[in-house]
């Protein structure tokens, strides 16, 4: 394995001199990724890595997927961007497809450039629609780092500021296996969370919406029991509170069993508002909001920003969506993800420091603790990332404020052989730490 050459070291110095200190870089020797193909990326030293984090779930299908590259370059050759003031064919086509896929009746779609901006728009819609700046959010949640999304991010370790333009009430339920309800079975857990939600309402509190991730992503890939949001929905409906499902990580089939995360709670039907981003562009910056027309149209506005729905990103989204549907990548996530979870559980069972292996489809978390205790071990998670990198495998980190969960979310085209190869590297890395 080559040592990082001076070129990358110099780039790191220049990065540190000119970019904000809070722009986190992974690894003691940060990586400079120069290119990718399929499920692999290469650094400036020429080292190849199996990518189990997909650029924080943005490379959903595969790196350098020819279909997406072709669509992007053809569209860029015609026009990259004109304005939101003119008709935009790829935007209309992608909106039509997403409206149908969303399951939301009479759906309207608005495109943004990121998940943060999508949630920001969803919050503006809900608060305007209900004329209330109170929001319900889940403990340990992550919805972005803009001023409004930080205000509904329960995971304080990931918030740059504790100031808030919204009045937020945090609800239990996002984390299943830690906290005061950890000892309860599924049915009692759901009941306790519903009681907690009921307890927050009344007394002049009239929240506009509940915003929630079906599986908490940054929070460490933790999921409530299926049906929790259906149970919440009954309470929300009684109070006229909207449900915003943040599908930025769970959308497009990543969880294997479902195309959207909300479908694990299907009895409740679709949410009122759905937000998406990350993987739909296979790396191009697309975010968006889907909402019933009466909610979407409550704003009296022009577009919200200049770039949402830019033709090049829309072309990428269309090509990527077609590819993932035609190749049933959701089915692949279910099959290969299922095998990978089983394999990792087998590995984890023999290691004291592994508290849990959990997940769904290709969204798998491995929680690390100090051996023999229940205490989170961010040090071990960090060491595991370094050791895996040495072995040629890229992983992610997450969890509560202490980031002790290793996150695995490869492109959805992962093969069985690659899953096995990644698991073997991870097993060795675990032994090393
Ligand atoms: N919501 C969730 C659930 C996320 O995981 C993220 C990003 N990690 C966001 C919103 C924000 O998306 P973006 O980084 O594209 O702004």
From TrEMBL:
Q: Which cofactor does it need?
A: pyridoxal 5'-phosphate
Keyword Transferase tagged: yes
Q: Does the keyword Transferase apply?
A: yes
Give this protein's Gene Ontology molecular function annotations. alanine-glyoxylate transaminase activity; pyridoxal phosphate binding
Keywords from the UniProt entry: Aminotransferase, Pyridoxal phosphate, Transferase
The broad enzyme category this protein falls into is transferase
What's the EC number here?
2.6.1.44
Family membership noted in the UniProt record: Belongs to the class-III pyridoxal-phosphate-dependent aminotransferase family.
Name-wise, this protein is alanine--glyoxylate transaminase
Question: What organism, scientifically named, is this protein from?
Answer: Streptomyces liangshanensis
Species lineage: Bacteria, Bacillati, Actinomycetota, Actinomycetes, Kitasatosporales
